Amino acid sequence: MESFLKEVKLHIKESVPDHCYRMWIEPVALSAHDAESIVLSAPNDFYIKRLKENYLGYFEEGFLRLGQKIRIEFKVNNKKINSGSRQAQKTTGGMPAIPEAVNIPSEFHPHLPGMTPAFNCGRMLKKNFTFDDFVVGDNSSFAYNASLCLAQGNLNGTGVLFLLGKTGLGKSHLSQAVGHHMLAHNLTQRVLYVTAEDFTNEMIYSLRNNSIDQFKEKYRLKCDVLILEDVHFLTGKTATQNELAMTLDYLIDADKKIIFSGNERPDEIPKLNESLKSRLNMGIVTEIKTPDFGTRVKILNKKSKAIQCLLPTPVTEYIAQEACEDVRQLESALISVVTRGRLMNRKIDVELARRVLEKMTGTRKRITIDLIKKLVCEAFDVSEQELVSKSRKHRIVKPRQVAIFLSKQYTDQPIKTIGASFKRYHATAIYSVNEVEKEMKQKGQRYEQIRYLANKLESGSF
Question: How far is Cα 235 from Cα 272, in angstroms, rounded to an integer?
Answer without folding.
Answer: 6
